Amino acid sequence: MGARRDVFQAIADPTRRAIIGMIAKEPVNVNTIAEQFDVSRQAISLHLKILAECGLLSMKQQGRERICEAKLEKLNEVNEWISQYKQFWNTKLDALDKFLKNNEKLK
């Protein structure tokens, strides 16, 4: 059995991030997505499969077209992970700011 895919794996690749950006605006058919990249249709299909497995997109059939729609709720997981580091660095930078202001007063 393969490793479970997660949202961090999905956003690790620049092509997948670009696809997320495209479909976040509006649902897009697979052909339109593929036309935007200088890689094979098969490579785009693999990217779409990974995004779907990670829960970041859903695909539905409309006539002869497959339409990709963003499901961005999973990005909250990334936001929560980043937030802890954002808080850490904000605390450090606030302390540095205070230190620099105190040293300025001593001059």
UniProtKB/TrEMBL annotation:
What Pfam family does this protein match (any one)?
HTH_20
Under the heading PROSITE patterns, the entry gives: HTH_ARSR_2 (PS50987)
Cited Gene3D superfamilies: Winged helix-like DNA-binding domain superfamily/Winged helix DNA-binding domain (1.10.10.10)
Xref: PANTHER family: TRANSCRIPTIONAL REGULATORY PROTEIN (PTHR38600:SF1)
User: Which ranges carry the HTH arsR-type domain?
Assistant: 1-90
User: Could you tell me what this protein is called?
Assistant: Transcriptional regulator
Q: Which SMART domains match?
A: HTH_ARSR
